[in-house]
Fold:
Amino acid sequence: MSLYVILMGIQGAGKGLQAKRIEEHFGIPQVSTGDLFRAMRTRTDDLARKVQQIMAAGQLVDDDTTNAIVVDRLAQADAARGVILDGYPRNQVQAAFLEAHLAEKGARVNSVLLLELDLFTAFKRAFGRVSAADGGSYNYYYNADGVDFKWTQDPAGQFPPRLEATVAGGGESLKRRPDDASADAIIKRIDTYLETTQPLISYFEARDIVRRINADQSIDSVWTDIKRALEYR
Ligand code: AMP
Structure:
């Protein structure tokens, strides 16, 4: 029996962490189209260059290219028993293509896991997040013990104050992901997610395969709910 799972959820919902657990528990690999496109960075052919330009402009790669890269990935040996799809499908054309492709293999999308998180929490998880060189992760709103956070005013008063973080007592300065440091950019990502995914949710709801998971719980509790949703589908 194969298992094809689509993982959907707003940034900050914990998709990456949960995908790792699904991978380990069910023995199927995570396939992220964003990762596949980023991996093309080292290539210099025309297609790879075109994809890099599109990504740098924050646009979506065209459906034909995206579908082709997914077909290629699904044909690899480690994907023979299914995959966890992350970042794909992103629209209804891709969703219909995927369904047709799986039907040809005698398979289908078994489950769409929707990790639900309210928008303000999603914003705070991204905006408040800082990390240390050793991979340690802290958050201004949720996990600030041992970290000094400071708002630094722009001397020219042109830009909003910047959030800076250091390990308490004058230690290491902690890093924010560049795409998390701007409130505008985070809101834009949230808007894009809402615009593109809402129609997809209705699309899959018509097939009765959407499972809603409350992502505003501990990592372990979210995992318990996911496991249950996949085991009793
Ligand atoms: P992600 O890591 O999923 O946010 O993807 C990063 C970038 O890769 C996106 O901004 C798009 O340019 C491209 N991309 C990833 N997945 C898709 C997709 N399913 N359709 C079109 N473009 C995609």
User: Anything to note?
Assistant: The CA atoms of residues 69 and 75 lie 10 Å apart.
